Amino acid sequence: MNRKEKNDEIEEIKYKLIVIGDENVGKTAILNRFKNNQFSAIYEPTVGLDFQSIPIVIDDQSVTLLLYDTAGQEKFRSLIPLYTNEANIILLIYDISNTESFNNIDLWYDSLNNINKDEVIFALVGNKSDLDYNRKVKKEEAEKYAKEHNYIFQEVSALTGEGIQELFLNKLIDQIRTQFIQRGKNLTDQEEEKLKINLNSQKKKKEENKDNKCCRCSI
Questions:
Q1: pTM above 0.85, yes or no
Q2: Which residue in 19, 137, 161, 192 could disulfide with 187, CB within 3.0 to 4.6 Å?
Q3: Which residues sit opposite 92 in a β-bridge?
């Protein structure tokens, strides 16, 4: 987590988010759906690395998500440590209709040999939930794997947008809030208490509305 300070006030926080996984699991499509709410059926493999950013606000705090899209081809796997340096969030992407892409998650994780994994937010993301009729990876199996490794878990569809808001604007942001509190973020006691109240309030609201479908919400 990087931040700039001016006159003892926090101006900006940057979170480096990286997506990794096999080729053609939809890493680029997931980021494009999140950032632009768009989907392209034309597949163009990422070469090396693509980068974009998106500003969000978390409890009145400006945060810039730096989105790094990595290539999934095996020949680029050795370059992953170069891209994941100082990563704050890593999304491990697989395709629910492709068993091999799920089995390879361990290989991608093992390639992350240059970071303190205990300080990184990890999420296991099963893309192409719209292909449930052709499912090869059971949701229960993936959920169990994520729980065993202490990962966030979410199935999404870059095609329809299903699960994208829940992943980025709920689960990941909740984890960022938690890190704000755990790491102190150089907050005053009053500011830290405010974050705790906001976090608890949002969790309570989710519990009250857990039976309702989440509608699309703006950032």
A1: no
A2: 192
A3: 20, 124
